Amino acid sequence: MATTSAYNRDDRTFPYIAIMPVALIVLLLGAVPAGYTFLLSLQRYELINPPAVYIGMKNFVTLLTDDPRFVHALVFTLCFALVATSLELVIGFFIAHLLADREVSHFFSSMIRTLLLVPFVVAPVVASYTFKTLIYDQTFGYLNNVLKLVGIPGVDLFHGSIAAPIGILVMELILRTPFIVIILYAAISSIEVSIFDASKIDGVNWAQNIGRVIIPVIRPIIVIGCILRFMDALKMFDEIYVVTAGGPGYVTENLSIFATTQAFTYFHMGYAAAAAFLFLLVVVFLVALFMRRIRL
Amino acid sequence: MKKIRGVHRGAARRVRIALKHCVLGAVAVFGLIPFFLIATTSLKLPSESVMTPPKWLFTPTMSNYRILLSTPEFLHAIMNSLIIAGGATLVSTVTGVLAGYAFSRFKFRGSGVVSYAILILRMVPPITFVIPYFLLWRTLRLSDTYVAMILMYTTLGMPLLVWMMRSFFVDLPIEMEEAALVDGCSRWQALRLIIIPAVSPGIFAASTLAFIAVWNEFMFALYNTGRVTRTLPVEIYNSLGYYQLDWAKLSTSAVIAIIPAILFIAFTQKNIVRGLTMGAVKG
Amino acid sequence: MNRTIRRGIVVFLAVVAVCAMPALLFAGGSQEQKAGAASGANGNWGNVNWQQFKGKTLNVLITSMPVAEVYKKQIAAFEALTGMKVNFELLNDTDRRKKQIVDFSSHMGEYDLGNIGFANREEFAQPGYLADLAAYVNNPKLTDAAWYNIGDYPKDIIAAGYSNGKLVYIPFTAEFFLLWYRTDIFKQLNLSPPKTFDDLRATAAKLDAARKAGQISAYAWVDRELPGSSEAGWNLFCTANRMNVDFLNYKAMTSNVATPQGKSVLTFYTSMIKDYAPPGTGNWSWGEIAQAFKSGQIAMTVGGNASYTYLEDPAQSKVAGKVGYAPPPMTAEGRDPLWEWGWGVNADSKNKDAAWLFVEWATSPTLMNQIAPEYGVPARKSVYAAPGFIKAMPGQQFIDAELFMLNQGVNPDPGLINAKYGETADIISKEMSNIIAGIKNVDQAASDADAALSKLGYTPAH
Fold first, then answer.
1. Which residue of A has its CA nearest to C438?
2. What is the CATH number of domain A67-294?
3. Looking at this predicted complex, what is its ipTM?
């Protein structure tokens, strides 16, 4: 890399000019709003009772020490992202492994992979409405009617505190596992055939093949897939907003729902900004943690 | 003896292969149920779209499409989405390709910080930005303008372009541009004449994904669009009425909203994996 | 590779062209429509110089609901009458309110006027975001008082537009709860519409027994369950008011949630749902309830009077002509908190005079008489006697129920009208949701609600 700069005189300025627009975007459209959120978070700013008053770190202290609802939202967000990501990884891995299986016809596999791209291009808000009414609803939805045909009593998403998170989880799995499938397929199918042949000669069985050959080889890609999926699961908003609105009670309230409720239902702009800023800190911390892994 | 075992093994193999195909088929069917429901509902009459029990058999009708495609608000929303997503994709592509190239070829002061910041921009929960953007556009007298929407969505598309293009440039043999530079091309000429043409499939794939991300975005649009700039997802979201469930309209608009994205996907499938992983995995 | 790109670009352009073509075609069409509507601006428009703000543009934000669609059809006529341009934006109610409050509070005056809901009135009025309309009503340059006849509004209906002595909006709908019941089922089982809460429970029990015995297929009862201040929270607070209970006293900052009265409301509301509603309805709001009622799934509910248009439309409702309407069950001192939509003007609008002209036009006797048959819940009393209106309504029983509510059934100043309603009702409705889901019992939920409310400064009453 150093050698290229010898060829040309404008190479000293070139990178700076080239990243200038991007740096400006990051600064003006990323750093400025984030800074503004931080400023808001230091205020008691009631939209229906202005003006704003500076109160220092009080919002943060209240959030962390005196708001079980925030703590619940934080824990739910992290747990949900963790569970969803792990399940998607396991299920996605086996589907990807099957798709890359040399016994499965190439045409069939590529057709399935194309079909699995559909979830990416459908607006999440539309998919969520479909789940809410056309699938989950016990009166209007298909799920309950199909279950009835098989003789299983209906599933009530709003009974007890466990059915609703599971309902959201299943929906998330159906909509997002294809992401894992597609990138893991790319990884598995790019493993050199000779590696498999060598292991076949060694006489390893199916499980050993996965555990000792495939996973170690594609580990970096698994890590990247997990990180991206995990970060997106943290941000999840549309699905919960539409299907359960955080209910029943507070059961499915995550950080995004908590912060929007504080901001636009209760009009505690400062408090909401503090919650959003803490959320941002969690994300920045996690990105920093994952950064080395992502840059392969 | 040997022959019989061979036959057995052949039959077992056939069963195993058939089973694998069946499992995959079942996975695809299962995963696509919601989208199948959207598509079929769009072909039902409004009175049949939400029924108890749901109506399994029905006579398909195109009337929902006819009605929707003659609704001025809906057509306006399509135009808005095309303008905004197109504009944001264009800005993201131009800035992203330049930056991606710089990151891939040069080590310079600040490169680490900037690329880290770009990654964070991709990961940030939108709730952090919704309120400040709203007030920012107000102050700049830019609310409900295409410029504001395009700028805002650049934060969504640009990180994708930068990281994805960086990975394409890293793969590109350095000798190509070195030859051009030796021949007396400036860095800019080399970029324009040699490098960009060589990675154009990558640019196309990356901008496609950026386009789709912007096309489907909901939260920013909900709080920042107005009469002039309302985009398709907000329009779709609004089609469910206050006192009634207008499922025929909702699913019909959803199907129409999917069409451009599906076409793009069909043409860029090869590079999609790289796009989904921000360039970290080569598909 | 390059060919793929070129093909992709061609496809993209084709898609753009296909999408854009109908839009262009329509642009031509809409101009014709406008020209046609101009001639429709007939009727008596009083002695007002409607053209005095010719050339100005008004930005209007309104909840996407049936009456908004009715108004939308008339916008071209208003533009022809005044020579102004109107941007008429429809948005679903939750987001309309959020957007409006953020806009009004920013003092930028992006939206000149919009619809204000009765229950959210104080969120806008208390911080001073709404202009006092009395000055405009009394300005002879802007209003022909004799023609406009504000005295036509029933006392309680216009009273609800006042906040702290300021007229902050002029109502265009007058809504309240009515008991909807299936006349065919009630006749079959020989039931009459319940008048008290005990009656209601007894009737629901009989209907449920009939369903379990296979005599009818409809469930006895349902009510809104999706938590939220303008979802189930509203129905819950209104039920409480019909029982003459206020969950909160916003002036004394006390909470009655965990008092015996408060708990009895929570118990009644949740047990009716748990005992008699269809299973799995924990996220139901108006849309689902109306849909289920229309398809014959529900025998009885308490619903808004404005939704009758859907129930009575044979094209989409199986029960058209089979719905009875009666005042909802109330205790002797209980009243139904009114619901109304009014037009309010942004105090920071740069076109307040012009915005008033829109309000005057939209709430004028002339226009309301023209459009009321299409939405059925006008705020002006004279309309209820107009032959065109009577003919369009589902029956005299419906009009009688409405008039009963207008004159004696509603409370124009219920305790729940407060800027803090949104947050507190959200909290209480979430605990209600916990009870329905079986996560908590009533005692637990009530004391948890009080714990959350005490952080906001409300002392539990005992």
1. A160
2. 1.10.3720.10
3. 0.87
